[in-house]
Amino acid sequence: MGVIELAWWQLALAALMVVVLAGCTAVARLGMGKSLLIAAARTVIQLTLVGLVLEALFAAERLVWVALMALGMLLIAGREVMARQKRRLLGGWAFGIGTLAMFLSSFTVTVLTLTVIIGPEPWYRPQYAIPLLGMMLGNTMTGVALALDRLTDTAWRQRAVIENRLMLGQRWQEAVGDIRREAMRSGLMPMINAMAAAGVVSLPGMMTGQILAGSPPALAVKYQILVMFTITLGTGFGTLAAVAAGSRRLFDRRERLRLDRLAPPKG
Amino acid sequence: MTATHSLRLARLAVGELAEVSLIIAPGEVHCISGPSGSGKSRLLRAVADLEPHSGEVWLGDIAQASLPAHVWRGRVMLVPAESQWWEDSVGEHMTQDALTDLETLGFSPEVLGWQVSRLSSGEKQRLALLRAISRAPSALLLDEPTANLDEVTTRRIEAWLQSIIREHGWPVIWVAHDPGQIQRVADRHWRIEASGLVEVTRWA
């Protein structure tokens, strides 16, 4: 069973409806029209380009190209994490911490999943490696960005509380403990919600795709469970690393709260 | 009764404020006054090592830099003008030792079960003093400790602070506005000016 062909004019119909939505928010003065359209345009351009890249990558099937692609995805995800923070750490730390956290968690988990669990031949076979890494990075990025944003923004708002706790002789870990827990929570909540709702409220995208492409549902389900678990691992460990490193960076060696290391919010 | 130490500021400089050198003997209260924005609170924050600064602070023969920062702050306790509370109830912020002084400050033990949101600013201020002191510090830095209190309570808090300061032999830096209060509690009085600290003599 093949997939029903989708023509560009059919996509244009969907695009038109997005434009209508943007128009509605503009009329209602909700101020989301522009960013909605920009994001939609980015989706079209980025996905089209990535389609071309994937075609070439699948044809070549070389480790170097797969690794380069993975590196490119990682750097873009790192930039995205940085851009999503209201008060980010200055001096490249926002990018550095986010990227390193995603690298450690997403790459490790993806490579482990490929070599130990799925076992394609060769292990870096792009049809498996790139989509898997993409899903990992996409979700880990959301988790890391949410957690770091919550961490720095809450530390900013509650600086008087943190400093009062320091004055009473608490260690920095204790003084920022509640905020770290909150940041961890906001990073992991989307994934926990997704797992809890999977199959009941929502049919996960990857499983839907596999079924549309003709896989038996039982196999699609197994893949989906595997992917959900690996994404949770990636998001969890990535968020953990980002919150640990980010909260450490909020304090200096003398355990002083250093909010001067945060950039002022833009606009 | 713990061993008493003097608190010594050696060429301490923070922000706009020029270098400050000061020796506070055990049990002595040094009041600091000056216009708002002159750097009184920042000076206290530097002594507690909450802000980057130059110079050194000594408690007896222990240098600030030689102790982990949280240990130093546990010994040289800063009580800010506006206290912060992070748990729901008062009791969760207090140590066991806080119980003995509750009544002196006009509270019944039930206060420990109160919600923090119920406290008035004056109550918060008194409880913040108690919270700090019950952690057994070796020196006190008080930033306008009676700012939110009425005259009667102010006098009572002053008397209570003076008695425990003497009892424990704590060196104290006390930031104050009210000349009357400074008269009552200060062993020495300094004014912050552009050049740094200038001593105000009683008879001036």
Q: Biggest interface pair, residues each? A: A-B, 18 and 24 residues
The name of the CATH architecture of chain B is 3-Layer(aba) Sandwich
What fraction of residues of chain A sit in β-strands?
Answer: under 5%
Named CATH topology of chain B: Rossmann fold
Radius of gyration of chain A: 21 Å
Label the overall shape of chain B: globular
- Find the count of extended strands of chain B (DSSP E, 2+ residues): 10
The stretches of 5 or more residues of chain A where confidence is low (pLDDT under 50) are none
Q: How do the strands of the widest beta sheet of chain B line up side by side?
A: 6-7-8-3-9-10
Average pLDDT of chain B works out at 92
Number of strands of chain A: 0
Q: Compute the number of helices of chain A.
A: 10
What's the number of structural domains of chain A? Answer: 2
Please identify the top-level CATH class of chain B.
Alpha Beta
Radius of gyration of chain B: 17 Å
Extract low-pLDDT stretches of chain B. Answer: none
Report the structural category of chain A.
Answer: mainly alpha
Q: First CA to last CA of chain B: what distance?
A: 37 Å
Following the backbone from N to C, one meets helices and strands of chain B in this order, namely EEEHEEHEHEHEHEE
InterPro entries (chain B): AAA+_ATPase (IPR003593), ABC_transporter-like_ATP-bd (IPR003439), ABC_transporter-like_CS (IPR017871), P-loop_NTPase (IPR027417)
Keywords (chain B): ATP-binding, Lipoprotein, Nucleotide-binding
Protein name (chain B): ABC-type lipoprotein export system ATPase subunit
Pfam families (chain B): ABC_tran
